Amino acid sequence: MDEFHTKMAAVSVAALWEQENRHNRPPETAQIWHWDAMNPLIDEAVKQTDMTNAERRVLILQNPNLASVGRTGAAINLTVNLQVLMPGEKARPHRHTMHALRFALEGDGAETIVDGKVCKMLPGDMILTPGWTWHEHRHEGKTRSVWVDALDVPMHTYMETGVFEPGPARDSVVLPPDAAFAPGFTPDTPAAAQRYSPLFRYPWDAAVKALEALPPASDGSRRLRYTNPVTGGAVLSTIDCYLLGLGKDQETRAYRTNSNCVCVVMEGEGSTRIGDETVTWGPKDIFSLPHDQWISHKARTAPARIFQITDRETLRRLDYLRDELRQ
Q: Closest by alpha carbon to 33, among 98, 71, 81?
């Protein structure tokens, strides 16, 4: 080093003009995890370990396109996994500061218990396990149960706020039963006013019924937001979820956003244009939608329904969120 750099190093200083420009980087490309490849890998995971050897039998989806920006996970700000539980198995209770949700892909008898509430996990159901709530899984059915995990782990990693605590469960808040949350009504109790949705289970049948009640947009699409019934906002303070329904053979209007999204195809086949690339998807495929890319969808079959997990709520709360529709 020359004298100037030696002096800076001695007092722990760096020159801004010599630093890598981290602004206006081109967005990463999309990544897709096809179910045809994941399905046999899940069976192999069952053979490799049982629940006595694993805290959770989980396959972490790693997006190789994030390596160039020094990140890991399925999308920026989102960790997404595939978890499998076999009949008769249990996953012990624990809690952590990270917000999480589960979206069931298959199974007939798995349940997640969240702060004492028993939540069935039927295909298409979305289950919340908000940060610092006690939760555990059990499976009393006859076929394997597979679901998608989504967590805000990357943000906790960045801020070093991730904490894990094993069970047994204790000190749980007693929440009103789900039946008390009827359309237009919420219980008038302090326990209902949490920083997350007091509903932990969002059934697939109810979501589809609500989605189909919406009139389609001019491009044939319908979009439903999963909400906290008390606030009308996102279900979690960092993660926002949607159900997208597509009209057959109609391309949706292109949009661009600085938020990040992971899509789980529940029904249908089609394709999604992301910038200059196109991904083709089918049932149970999972794919990422990187920020700052023009995006449009087109279904080849009907019905076509996609569950979307996004970090929009984090950006909205920070007043960073930007959205744009192509004219």
A: 81
Q: What is this structure's pTM? A: 0.94
Three-state SS letters, the chain: CCHHHHHHHHCCCCCHHHCCCCCCCCCCCCCEECHHHHHHHHHHHHHHCCCCCCCCCEEECCCHHHHHHCCCCCECCEEEEEEEECCCCEEEEEEECCCEEEEEEECCCEEEEECCEEEECCCCCEEEECCCCCEEEEECCCCCEEEEEEECHHHHHHHCCCCEEECCCCCCCCCCCHHHCCCCCCCCCHHHCCCCCCCCEECHHHHHHHHHHCCCCCCCCEEEECECCCCCCECCCCCEEEEEEECECCECCCEEECCCEEEEEEECCEEEEECCEEEEECCCCEEEECCCCCEEEEECCCCEEEEEEECHHHHHHCCCCCEEECC
Q: 202-221: b or e for each residue (b if 16 or more CB lie within 10 Å)?
A: bbbeebbeebeeeeeeeebb
Q: Tell me the one-letter amino acid at 280.
A: T
**Percent of the chain at pLDDT exceeding 90:** 80
Integer Cα distance of 117 and 211 in angstroms: 26
User: Which position has the higher pLDDT, 231 or 239?
Assistant: 239
Per-residue CA distances from 132 to 96, 112, 152, 178 (Å):
5, 15, 13, 20
Can you name the residues that pair with 165 across neighbouring β-strands? 95
Residues 69 and 316: their CA atoms lie apart, in Å, by 22
Q: CB–CB of 140/111 below 8 Å? A: yes
**Amino acid identity at 197:** S
| pLDDT (0 to 100) of residue 70 | 78
AA identity, residue 16: L
For 279, phi and psi rounded to 5 degrees? Answer: -110, 140
Separation CA 63–CA 80 (nearest Å): 10
Look-up: residue for tokens 């069952």? 46
The answer to whether 290 and 75 have CB atoms below 8 angstroms apart is yes
